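Journal club side-thread
Mid-discussion, someone asked how the predicted structure for our own chain would compare to the paper's figures. Pasting it here so we can look after the session.
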Amino acid sequence: MKEFFLHYIWKFNLFSREDLQTFHGDFLDILKVGKINSNAGPDFTEAEIIIGDKLWIGSVEMHVNSSDWNLHQHTDNLAYQNVILHVVWNHDCEIDILRQRNVQTLILQDFVKPEIVFNYQNIIQSKIKLIHCENLLSEIDLNQFSFWFERLLIERFEEKTTVILDVLAKNKNNWEETLFKSLATNFGLKVNVEAFEIWSNSFDFKILQKIQFNPLKVEALFFGQAGFLEDNIENDYYKVLKTEYHFLKNKYKLEAVSNQIFRFSKMRPIGFPTIRLAQLSAIYSNYQNLFSLIIKQNDLKSFYQTFEKIQLNPFWENHYTFKNESKFLIKTISKDKINNLLINTIIPLRYAYERSNDEVEIDFYLELLDQIKAESNSILDEYERIGFKNKSAKDSQQLIQLKKRYCSEKKCLNCAIGHQILR
């Protein structure tokens, strides 16, 4: 038994109120359970309870065992002087100071249905790694939790907003720069995310803004700063980029990162960092004010068109790296990659921007994500297997948040599904 479970039972009245009486024999009538106290002091404040024939107003302190009062040294703590009821699961001893103050003890387990405790223990002690309540879901209608799932999505937006605003502050409140660095880490994928983050911080964003009108200069800056223009390769495109970068390097006092930080092994060629840099450079050659553009777009088709029209330098039609030729393939940004950019970068960034200006229209984001193809991974597959729907990116993001913040942390008491199961 954990103390936070006692808090949960008390807060949501998951105990019988009929014939409720203290260990000392007085009947109780709980008018208000009080407000849970997140600060130091008693667990619940502002409770109103009739004990016997007297109304008590004050705090309620809860423990698994009565003796925890002494263990936690509450007797000499002035914050506990206004306790009107001691609620425990096991009454293993009398507390002298409470008897002197005429504060009585309620043994909560005498009034809690065994199935509530049984279900709680089944969840907490579950050895299932992913979804601890899996074996208890059979009689639960998951469709009744639509509002809860939307709340999960908003919660996810808010968490990402906090991170984005921290990055924004480091970028001196420059939203265009924040978008660039966010896109850079996204293009790095999981394998190269740190490398792309280091690369995006290796030059002043203002340099990029000064040369965006010239695609070759942008490509030279991107590949040069990534350390990919240090070799002697005999092709005209490479030589031009190398010359352009040499000029930029001297003009802006640039220092390239080592290309050794980028990983190519065990990757599909379309995901090579060279291709991702080429795609990113094409985006920024096409759009001088990308952030200003995306905050004005109001439908999924517009977002797709923004990135589907991006064309890479023709060199990349038969190359994945600078050194080796490959079969002809126009390496546009795929629909799946655009979806990934929307889900993980563009939508969170736009939400953060509107949130900072107190002008969020949450229905826009719910509807937009509902139109995007669902994500797929082993975790989402497991949720689908036991009955959760994953028909769109909206569902995917909600389930990811459920897994990350509730299932993984066993916060079943804070979860609407866990709450329903326990009831």
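Post-session note: The chain has two domains: 3-112, 152-371.
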